[in-house]
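Long-time lurker. I teach an intro course on protein structure, and each term I like to show students one example going from raw sequence to a predicted 3D structure in C-alpha cell notation. This year I'd like something fresh instead of my usual example. Would anyone be willing to generate the C-alpha cells for the chain below so I can use it in lecture? Attribution to the forum is fine with me.
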Amino acid sequence: MMKYKSTRSSIEVSPSEAILKGLADDGGLFVPVKIPKIDVPFTQLAQMQYGEIAYEILKLFLDDYSSEDLKYCIFHAYDQKFDTEEIAPLVKKGDAYYLELFHGKTIAFKDMALSILPYLMTTAARMNHLKEEIVILTATSGDTGKAALAGFAGVDRTKIIVFYPKDGVSEIQKKQMVTQAEDNTLVVGVNGNFDDCQTAVKNIFHDPGFRQELQEKGYVFSSANSINVGRLVPQIVYYVYAYVTLVKRGAIQSGQEINFVVPTGNFGNILAAYYAKEAGLPIHKLICASNENRVLYDFFSTGVYDKNRKFFLTNSPSMDILVSSNLERLIYHITGNDAAETARLMASLQTEGRYEITSEMREKLRTFYGAYAGEQETLHAISALYHACHYVQDTHTAVASAAYEKYLRKVADERPTVIVSTASPYKFAPAVMKAIAGNTEGDVYQKIDALHQLSGVAVPKAVSEIQNAPVRHKQVCEAGEMKNCVRKFLRMDQ
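-- Reply from a regular --
Happy to contribute to a lecture. Here you go:
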C-alpha cells in the first residue's frame, strides 16, 4: 500500500489519513514515500476522457481507496459543473499551447482539485471511522478560498473557514468569497498579507492544546490548501491530460519531451507537474514563473530562499506570496528524503527568514528554470497576445507568457510548450482592459462589460451571479485574532 510521510520526521500514514489530517502533527507536509509510475501507455491514455485519465492516475497515489469509491469521487467531481466538455481545453495560440484550467464553478484552476477534494475527504472520513466533524481551515491568496467554499458549502459533517488578506485580492475574488451562502461557511478578511494568513493558520494547526480542545468539542481540523495531498495529487492529472492530448492530436510522438510554464506563488501547481515528471511524464523543463514577488526566481537563481524583502501587491494577487509552502516538499526530495535536514532548513526559514541549499541539492533542480515578470511586462504580454491572436489571458497566465518569452531569449529550445492558464480574464478585468485598451474608467463591472464587447467571450456565470448577490461575510480581524474567530464560529465557549 502507498504510504505518505512527513517532510520533518518519520511519521507515516495512509493516503486517506493524509487527506484527513492535511498537515502532519510535527508541522511537516505529507509526501509519497515513493512516487508511483504511470502504468498505462500514453497512446492508450490519449483515447480516454478526463475523468478516465484521473482514475488511472489517482488509483496510483490513493491506493487505499477502493475502485468504486474512487470512481464515485471522480464521477461527481468532473461533471456538468464545468462549462466545457473537455474539462481542461488545450488551445494553441502563437508559439505555445494554453491549458485552460478555469472552466469550473469559480473560474480558476483551483476548481480542478477542489471539485474532488470534498468527496475524497468525506470518503476518507468514512473509511477511517472518523466520528468528529471536519473543520476545513484555509488561508487564501484569492482563488483557493472561493473554490474551497464552493466545494464544501453544504457538505454534511463539515465546516469551512477561509481567511484572506483584506486588501490583497481582486474585487471579483473578494466578492466571490463574501457572498458565499450556506451556514457551514465563514469568510474573514485579515489586516495583513497572505503570508500573515498562512502563518496564523499553520500556527492554529500546530497548537496541540487547541487541537485537543477542538477534539473534545467534536471537531478535527483539515485543510483545503495545496498543503493537503488531496488537493495536490488531483493536480497531477491535468499535466498528464495535456501531454496525452498532444499525442492524440499528433502534435507530438508518445515519449517526446515537452515543457510546462507554470505561474505559481505557493509552489503547489508546479510541484504537481514535478510529481508528474517523476511518475514518468516526459517533461524537459518546468519553467517557474514569478511576479514581482520574485522569491522563487531568486531561489532557483541562487540557491538561497529569503523572505526578508519588500512585499508587492500586484495585478496577479494569487501569486503575491513570500513563503511558498509547497517548496518544502521539493526541498525534502532534493535532500535525499532527509527529514532532519528539511526540518532544519524550515526552522531556519521561521527564525531567520531564509535558508540556503547545498550545491549538491542545486544540481537536482535542473528540471526547473526560474523566470519572472514585472507589472509592465505582464500587461505587455496580455496586450501582445490579444493583438496577435485575439486571445485574452488573465494576469497570472500573462506572467507565465512573459516568463516563457524570457526563457526563449536565453535558451534555444524548440520543444512544444504548454502554458498553464490558471484563471479567467474576467476575474481580473480592470488590469486586462488596461493592458488591451488602456481603459481605466468605470467600476469593475463596467470593465467586465467592456471586456465582453472587446473579446466576444461570454461573461462566466461565476461573475454575473455575484454582481447583485448580498454580502454575507463582513468580518475583519488582525492575524493574531484568527484563532478567536475560529473559536467563536464553532461556539467552543458554549
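Some talking points for your students: The longest helix spans residues 229-249. DSSP finds 22 helices and 16 strands in the chain.
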